[in-house]
Amino acid sequence: MPLLSHTIITPILSRNNRRCFSLMAASAAFDDAKHGFSRPEMYKENLAGTLDAYDRHVFLCYKNHLAWPPRLEASDADPLPKRVATVWRARKNDIAVKTKITVCEAREEAGFSDGDALIFPDMIKYRGVEESNVDVFFNDVIVSGKEWSGGKQGKGVLKGSHIFVCAHGSRDVRCGVCGPVLMDKFNEEIQLRGLKDQISVLACSHIGGHKYAGNVIIFSPGSDGKIMGHWYGYVTPDDVAALLDRQIAKGEVIKKLWRGQMGPPGAEIKVADDHKLANGVYNNKANLSNNENVTGCCQGVNGVSCCRTASFDDKTAEAYKKQGSNNISWCLPVLKKRDILTAGGILGALAAVAVAFRFYRRAS
């Protein structure tokens, strides 16, 4: 009897599982077409200039993006961000430095706890912001630009590069669909390059411009070593590798996706050669055609390599193929034109010798 039950039930469960997976796949395709990377509004607007000029960005670490209500600043169930918003409105006219304040997720395993305040471009982390000391924090740090007298839990220094992805799905479904996918892709590519200790990826709340989802902010050193905050829109998983290899590793802006930057609007930026095709795939051949001095990609201006290791082995190449990356060629040496011609001449000479030897043997 148990055998008969197993024989009958297993196909039923299998059919139900297949039906469930089919429904999930159909739902995912529908979400992508309506709210995700395939939605009709993608690439409809020129993104440059869609960011207002500002000089400082403060992120308050708080809970998880899945727990955020649509309006964090007005939620009675979330007293800390609500108090921050209240004090911000009261002191806004006292703040001399143009400042943005955004909530980001708290991730203990990454070193970010509830109540941590991350400040860019200062690269400072204050711990222990609570509802009871928000006023003092604002007065000391945000308004006066001094050390926080109430920071009993300490002050730390932020290192490396920091990526914030809007994943505030309760506020707008487009960021709820695109954000988590981009975060997973960033983490995958970072893991491939062995940069987990140098680049952090955190979800953040509403930053404006949900219609530009996926929305990404990248804080990393520019070519002069100064921390820059670059905003990107219409970012898809196909763009992630280029943002790591160009924006973070080389300090080059991806022009088509660039919304603007933290700092003076007239600040000089280094723009990457933009060979992005309509479907989001990058044509790397164009990047290599006119450069005879490139010896490999492992020379990022920020000490960040766009390779996983200096030795690009077969396993890494295979992993890149599985990830759909088109950047493998960046980690291979580029031969100079004269080297190629020399090699061709040598091969031609060897071929001629081989033919002559063959005729000689026949004549013998």
Automatic annotation (TrEMBL):
InterPro entries: Aim32/Apd1-like, Thioredoxin-like_sf. This is Altered inheritance of mitochondria protein 32. Pfam families: Suc_Fer-like. PANTHER family: ACTIN PATCHES DISTAL PROTEIN 1 (PTHR31902), PROTEIN, PUTATIVE-RELATED (PTHR31902:SF12). Coiled coil: none annotated. The keyword Transmembrane helix applies. The keyword Transmembrane helix applies. It comes from Glycine max (Soybean).
